[in-house]
């Protein structure tokens, strides 16, 4: 029977361990959590790229995060999130968050405490309409109250707001959960609108024909649809509007706008998402 060289055996074992060490010390891939909570299917949002080009002094970056939430970024670095809620949020903490109470997908019960200004589009005390006129850095945010339908079908007077964002020479209006046509008083309060963000679902909010009339009255140079729950609803709206305005579909959910680069005539710009 051949004798076993203990020293030679230990040397061979140590050599094998040395070869295996890099693999043993390398990080173990993280396993996906089967029970990881996710946003609602219709609330899928887009991730923003890590590297983002600086904005010129007259530029504004708009990113469609999903549903009715947009991230608005100013040249001075102020970040605003519209219809901030607990289901879909931008991947950065905004400095200002606007909210509407029509549905839980338009407001948050637990907004990030790092947000400097949280602006509900209704008066939580129930004493009347919300009134906001806030300036932070290079953006002014104000609201125009509107009515909504309550869950019981009644009218909740001043229950929501359209929010207006004034950045340099650009005026952006987010119509929120608009349920009714705009009256002359609403139009005067909104003032000149360069960019309008508007819902097109046609059922939970104002019907599509009514929304077309709203857009005609605003005459914004850029019109960006939101709140459409999928391509079918959006395409129905675009079919109704095709004889009125040109449509531009973007490949990315973000767009940089300035007063100088607005289209020469009113244009619908579709950002990917829903």
Automatic annotation (TrEMBL):
The keyword Secreted does not apply. SUPFAM superfamilies: Metallo-hydrolase/oxidoreductase. Residues 1-32 form the signal peptide. Keywords: Signal. It comes from the Bacteria. Pfam families: Lactamase_B_3. The keyword Signal applies. This is L-ascorbate metabolism protein UlaG, beta-lactamase superfamily. It comes from Bosea lupini. The lineage of its organism: Bacteria, Pseudomonadati, Pseudomonadota, Alphaproteobacteria, Hyphomicrobiales.
């Amino acid at each position: 029977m051949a004798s076993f060289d203990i020293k030679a055996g230990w040397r061979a074992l140590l050599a094998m361990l040395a070869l295996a060490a890099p693999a043993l010390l390398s990080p173990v891939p993280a396993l996906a959590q089967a029970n990881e909570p996710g946003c609602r299917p219709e609330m899928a949002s887009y991730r923003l790229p890590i590297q983002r080009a600086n904005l010129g002094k007259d530029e504004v970056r708009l990113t469609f995060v999903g549903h009715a939430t947009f991230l608005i970024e100013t040249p001075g670095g102020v970040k605003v999130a519209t219809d901030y809620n607990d289901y879909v949020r931008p991947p950065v903490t905004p400095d200002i968050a606007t909210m509407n109470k029509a549905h839980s997908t338009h407001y948050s019960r637990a907004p990030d405490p790092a947000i400097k200004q949280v602006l509900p589009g209704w008066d939580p005390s129930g004493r009347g309409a919300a009134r906001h006129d806030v300036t932070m850095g290079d953006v002014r945010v104000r609201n125009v109250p509107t009515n909504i339908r309550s869950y019981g079908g009644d009218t909740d007077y001043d229950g929501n707001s359209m929010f207006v964002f004034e950045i340099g020479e650009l005026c952006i209006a987010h119509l929120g959960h608009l349920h009714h046509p705009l009256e002359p008083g609403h139009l005067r309060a909104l003032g000149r609108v360069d960019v309008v963000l508007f819902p097109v679902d046609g059922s939970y909010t104002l019907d599509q024909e009514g929304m077309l009339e709203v857009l005609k009255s605003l005459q914004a140079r850029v019109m960006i649809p939101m709140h459409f729950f999928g391509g079918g609803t959006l395409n129905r709206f675009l079919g109704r509007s095709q004889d009125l305005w040109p449509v531009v579909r973007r490949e990315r959910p973000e767009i940089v706008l300035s007063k100088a680069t607005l289209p020469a005539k009113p244009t619908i710009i579709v950002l990917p998402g829903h």
